[in-house]
Amino acid sequence: MNTHLINNQWHTGQGPVFNSINPSNGEIVWQGNGANAEQVDSAINAARAAQVQWADTPIESRITILENFVAQLKEHSEEFAAIIARETGKPLWETRTEVGAMTGKVAISIKAYNERTGTTENPMPGAKAFIRHKPHGVVAIFGPYNFPGHLPNGHIVPAILAGNTVVFKPSELTPHVAEFTLSLWLKAGLPAGVINLVQGEVETGKALASHQNIDGLFFTGSSNTGHLLHKQFAGHPGKILALEMGGNNPLIVKDVADVSAAVHDIIQSGFITSGQRCTCARRVFIEKSLNGDAILKKLISATKNIVVHDSFATDQPFMGAMISERAALGMVAAQKELVESGGEILVELKQLKAGTGFVSPGIIDVTNITNMADEEHFGPLIKVYRYNDFDSAIAEANNTSFGLSAGLLSDNEDDYSHFLKRIRAGIVNWNRPITGASSAAPFGGIGASGNHRASAYYAADYCAYPVASVESEKVNLPQTLAPGLVIE
Ligand SMILES: NC(=O)C1=CN([C@@H]2O[C@H](COP(=O)(O)OP(=O)(O)OC[C@H]3O[C@@H](n4cnc5c(N)ncnc54)[C@H](O)[C@@H]3O)[C@@H](O)[C@H]2O)C=CC1
Ligand SMILES: O=C(O)CCC(=O)N[C@@H](CCC(=O)O)C(=O)O
Hints:
The strands form six sheets. Strands 14-15-16-13-12-17-18 form a seven-stranded mixed sheet, sandwiched between helices. The protein has a five-stranded parallel sheet with strand order 9-8-7-10-11, sandwiched between helices. A three-stranded antiparallel sheet has the order 5-6-21. The protein contains 14 helices and 21 strands. It is globular and about 90 Å long. Helix 2 (59-75) packs antiparallel against helix 4. The model has no long low-confidence stretch (mean pLDDT 97). By secondary structure, it is α/β, with parallel strands linked by helices. It has helices at 37-56, 59-75, 77-88, 92-117, 150-161, 175-187, 202-209, 223-233, 259-270, 290-304, 325-340, 390-397, 413-422, 459-463; strands spanning 4-6, 9-11, 17-21, 28-33, 120-124, 127-135, 138-142, 165-169, 195-197, 216-220, 240-244, 249-254, 281-287, 344-347, 362-365, 381-387, 405-410, 427-430, 442-443, 455-456, 464-471. Bound molecules: 1,4-dihydronicotinamide adenine dinucleotide and ligand LFNQLBSZ. Pathway: Amino-acid degradation; L-arginine degradation via AST pathway; L-glutamate and succinate from L-arginine: step 4/5. It is an enzyme of class 1 (oxidoreductase). InterPro entries: Ald_DH/histidinol_DH (IPR016161), Ald_DH_C (IPR016163), Ald_DH_CS_CYS (IPR016160), Ald_DH_CS_GLU (IPR029510), Ald_DH_N (IPR016162), Aldehyde_DH_dom (IPR015590), SuccinylGlu_semiald_DH_AstD (IPR017649).
């Protein structure tokens, strides 16, 4: 079984067995043993042994390996999209776009590397001033299950481009995607030790994150785990920690003439990927007005019509299964709690088939809930707030410890400038869905959503540190010496 890749050799695990289940039908798609602490240690040693030589490899040669990886992704794109679909339950149309995003990541990362962390040279009297960037060394990379290819790739590509070596720990829910990704890197000619893969559940993650011999950790995942890692890294100022975490993202709707367009953008924001994107709109603020009533009415009917089906259905659905039956039942329980706190169901989120992750999308009016918990419900459930006044809607939108994405749907540009100045989030959109962020822009949140190390285009920044140098070919005695200094 190709479970762990250490120094370009596949190993079976010495830790506990774990399975990956297709959430559309409950079938086991992958089974293996996790890596134990000794195997994690070996992976880190392999990365350490490879690092200096990799950093010394000319950038053109590193880029050639990345471009070979792109060629492999293109050659195997259909197979890869099917593997992601089987393991996550996402529809095939969407997993194809995930493979496309992985392909596009390389050129964008090269541009960002040169632009944000390249070398600059400035003349100065008798010398030259340089700004260069160096890799940190060995970095641990943790990925989530919702984009098991694209999001770890968003750390791995810029990390190795900058000359770091990597130990990658994917989500335990998507081991097959990780294994396939590494098989493509091998075909691309990856030198031994540059990317190592260790799979497993939380114990494997803990062994990697707490290892003394890593120089940094790049994490995309839940806010809970991110906060644990942040505590663990306290007292280690020498290690770089980049945290990309969840959100409780608001979308405010106000005065939109095209009701269907507003409904489209709300659905794309709330229900894409069955609500399993960190950028998804969790809270939608709709004005108490005739326009607001019309938008809500159409949103309810369009939501009831959303097609939820198997990843491989000939007529492709908008939503596939959630990642697991457990996640699906978690959303049903979250909805029940909201009802018990005073929420009114407008469209009920229901599990569609026992033993699977299929749920129908739901909408719940939470206007009358006081003391609403500030939680990310990672699934297709939109909480609607009806509001009277725009400023109070913005204040409530900001009433969260998170700050990842936010948006305004409004035909009025003044409303947008007002919103943009006041809303607290790392991604702020106007009359566009709040999901689907571009890899060519920084991607990260504030508050509980991140630690000010934005990813995507700005990933280059946390993959290397700046070195400032003043350089002269010879040591020269200055013509004028400092007062009180006599050198004869
Ligand atoms: N801001 C962003 O860029 C994104 C954030 N996310 C967030 O990710 C979450 C969904 O992903 P999940 O896979 O459920 O996240 P998760 O936090 O459960 O897992 C992420 C990774 O951390 C590992 N892990 C879990 N507990 C650990 C521990 N105590 N020590 C070390 N490693 C540990 C897991 O095995 C996995 O590899 C959502 O909250 C979502 O909002 C997802 C995508 C993008
Ligand atoms: O990381 C990038 O290259 C761009 C950010 C991105 O792809 N965002 C996606 C997915 C994020 C998620 O998992 O929720 C998005 O904004 O939809």
